[in-house]
Amino acid sequence: MLVLGIESSAHTFGAGVVERGRVLANEKRMYRVGTKGMIPARVAELHAKNAAPVIKEALDKAGITTEEIEGVGYTKGPGMGPCLQVGMLAAKTIASSLHIPIVPVNHAVAHVEIAKKEARLKNPIALYVSGGNSQILRLGEKPNRHYAVLGETFDIGVGNMLDAFARNIKLNPAWGSTVAKEAKGGRYVPMPYTVKGMDFSFTGLLTHASGLAKEKSNNDLCYSIQETAFAMLCEATERALLMANGRELCVCGGVAQSERLKEMLAGMCREHGIVFGYAGNEYNADNGAMIAYVAERLLEKGASAKLRDCDVKQRYRIETAMVP
Amino acid sequence: MRNGIRRIGEGAEAQIFETSMFGTDVIAKIRQPKAYRIAELDRELRRSRTRKEAKAMLRARNNGVNAPALLALGEYSIYMEKTRGRLLKDAKPGIGIYAKIGSELAKLHDADIAHGDFTPANIMLHGNGVCIIDFGLSDITKSVEDKALDLLLVKRAVKKEEFKALLCSYIKKYEDSRQVLDRLADIERRGRYQTRTLA
């Protein structure tokens, strides 16, 4: 089946084309956060401008015409309402004008599923880390398969924490990868470390590190906040793996682009003989291909939705989402 | 040490060994270095957690909680009395046992100890009694939030009626339970948990 997937939950508008599990195109355009972060309405406005050109680029890249699309998937949530609306509207327009089936997709499920496929893992525990989300996930048993949350953040996602810290100390662009660059060669400054079993919390770390902005160098603070946050994620994940007898781990989501996080997780997995894998960065960043990939499998299972039932849900929990 | 030392378990934080000292069975919990995190953070976490764990164990015992007795303490190691029995996670006890768990938790919270990992993997059953183990993530604190998180963890891990029995005795035995329960409801109302289901 030739399926178009549309993603617009946060700063990225993405369109991907998948056929029989193979990615033919994965195009995207991003909102530039600068030093101010994201204003949902502005991001949505930009998505609306980008929607048609990005979808066209994806179709061109895949070498197909609009009429050849056989199904369409879009991100229902979790994400920012105004942004999600744009993707949904684009998907609905295409579905209704071409008379093809449409299916809503859970953003988190898509990240995990594409990582599993790319890393060739069968049934891994997944660490899903992005701006808005930080969760440790496991797929439940058949027949009612859905993801269960083993552990997660009590407050904000790790990406959001790093972005907010970058804004507080006036980095440009203010997000995690700038913090990572700034962290190189830093020295460790003690930071609050909050892990409760398999759950964790990031706001205390953010407040503390931001409060030290005048006393300590950006270099040392970036190094310390990153090392502390990632060590917390590693510890919670390690506990989840041991508790669930996991033999495989995958990391996915925007923060999975971090080399340091992957290095730490790989080290932890080596100690326990656990297979560790992840997708390339094009799939860890938000993208349309992962939505298309899940949408194709859902549509093949007959899970298409009626147009009038297609909606968005800002807090769309992964436990309630259908898994292909 | 007569019978040498035998590794019996591995947690995310520490390795657990069984040995004997002065003719009694002893459990040794040793926090070994984690290569994935930087050395300064690693040492500090292992040292402070070992100390904190020992303090919480002692405080629990001194306040009448069924917890293993602390025998010896090193920089990264704790030697304690061996508790016999089965872990709650491996057993299917009658509902009655949950009242006892609730009253142990009440004693903990009354002594201002938040366990930090209050799950069926850290509750030991022996005969008709229960013993609380693994104070590795415990805090000595008055924080209502931390106490509520103990309840949240166990609530997520046991059946509804089991939690009800636990809560019933917790409320009876712990004077400030109202505040903790209010906070628990508060935490559960926070958006991201509304539909969180059991793992």
List its salient traits.
heterodimer; A: 324 residues; alpha/beta; Nucleotidyltransferase, domain 5; 2 domains; 5-stranded mixed beta sheet; B: alpha+beta; Phosphorylase Kinase, domain 1; Transferase(Phosphotransferase), domain 1; 5-stranded antiparallel beta sheet
Please render the helix and strand layout as text.
The complex is a heterodimer of chains A (324) and B (199).
Chain A: E1 2-7, E2 12-19, E3 22-30, H1 40-62, E4 71-77, H2 81-98, E5 102-106, H3 107-119, E6 125-129, E7 134-139, E8 147-152, H4 158-168, H5 176-183, E9 195-196, E10 199-200, H6 203-211, H7 218-243, E11 248-252, H8 259-272, E12 275-278, H9 281-284, H10 288-300
Parallel strand pairs in A: 1-4, 4-5, 6-11, 11-12
Antiparallel strand pairs in A: 1-2, 2-3, 6-7, 7-8, 9-10
Chain B: E1 6-10, E2 15-21, E3 24-30, H1 39-62, E4 70-73, E5 77-81, E6 86-87, H2 96-110, E7 113-114, E8 123-126, E9 129-132, E10 139-140, H3 144-157, H4 160-173, H5 177-189
Antiparallel strand pairs in B: 1-2, 2-3, 3-5, 4-5, 6-8, 7-10, 8-9
Helix pairs in contact in B: 2-4, 3-5
Q: What do these coordinates show?
A:
Chain A folds into two domains: 2-109 and 283-320, ATPase, nucleotide binding domain (Nucleotidyltransferase, domain 5), CATH 3.30.420.40; 120-282, 2-Layer Sandwich (Nucleotidyltransferase, domain 5), CATH 3.30.420. In chain A, a hairpin with a 7-residue loop joins strand 7 and strand 8. Chain A has 324 residues and is of the alpha/beta class. Chain A has a five-stranded mixed sheet, with helices on both faces. A five-stranded mixed sheet of chain A has the order 8-7-6-11-12, with helices on both faces. The model of chain A has no long low-confidence stretch (mean pLDDT 96). Chain A has helices at 40-62, 81-98, 107-119, 158-168, 176-183, 203-211, 218-243, 259-272, 281-284, 288-300, and strands at residues 2-7, 12-19, 22-30, 71-77, 102-106, 125-129, 134-139, 147-152, 195-196, 199-200, 248-252, 275-278. Chain B has 199 residues and is an alpha+beta fold. Chain B folds into two domains: 6-81, Phosphorylase Kinase, domain 1, CATH 3.30.200.20; 86-193, Transferase(Phosphotransferase) domain 1 (Transferase(Phosphotransferase), domain 1), CATH 1.10.510. Chain B contains five helices and ten strands; from the N terminus they run βββαβββαββββααα. In chain B, a hairpin with a 2-residue loop joins strand 2 (15-21) and strand 3. The longest helix of chain B has 24 residues, at 39-62. The model of chain B has no long low-confidence stretch (mean pLDDT 91). The interface between A and B is medium-sized, with 33 and 28 residues.
